[in-house]
Amino acid sequence: DCEFEEQNINKRLNAKNLFPELKSIIAIGVPYGEGYKFPQVSKKGLLSVSSHGEDYHKTVNSLLVELAEEIMHHIEFKFLPCVDTTFLIDKEICRSAGIGNYGKNSLLINKNNGSFMNLGYLLTDIEIPADTIIEEDICGTCSLCVKSCPNSAIFENGGINSKRCVSYLTQTKNYIPMEYRENMG
User: Fold this and answer.
1) Quick one: DSSP state of residue 160?
2) Count of domains in the chain?
3) What is the pTM of this model?
4) Which of the 8 DSSP states describes residue 50?
5) For 92-137, how does the pLDDT look when each residue is reduced to its tens digit (9 = 90+)?
6) Would 103 be classed as within a structural domain?
7) Which pLDDT band holds residue 175 (cuts at 50, 70, 90)?
8) Which residues are catalytic?
9) What are phi and psi of 80, to 5 degrees?
10) Which of 14, 60, 82, 157 is 20 to 30 A from residue 67's alpha carbon, by CA?
11) Under a CB-based contact definition with an 8 Å cutoff, are residues 88 and 12 in contact?
12) In a domain, 23, yes or no
């Protein structure tokens, strides 16, 4: 129920609404943050490691275009790169491509990178065999995200209260309730 997301779920689940020629989707998860050290500054405001440095939208989009150009050495095709900029549900597209499965924090998680991935995909007009969807419970008994969430937005059963989530609060154009501000750093 975020004001910056398309509310029509049927539209969000059908990539042909964006790319009518769609036959296959090539998805990637680009890892970030390994070995990252937060800068020592006195200013407040803690943001995700993915927000430090170059805009991930540009970085992942460039990687997708490079990938498409490499594939074009073998076959001509139409494509549309997407990086968190369309009405489509990026996490579901990448989950369906076998990149990971949903964790208790509602993020896509895989065994190599956890949730520290920026997601992107190419909508294409070529037929490509589908990868296997990861169905296993990726979190098991781990509840670190539930315990670490500064505004208690993550529930043990995997649900999220998006109105408490720091990611949502840093993107909303609405007033941020005082009770959540202090926990945002």
Assistant:
1) B
2) 1
3) 0.80
4) G
5) 999 999 999 999 999 999 999 999 999 999 999 999 999 999 999 9
6) yes
7) confident
8) 84
9) -135, 115
10) 14
11) yes
12) yes
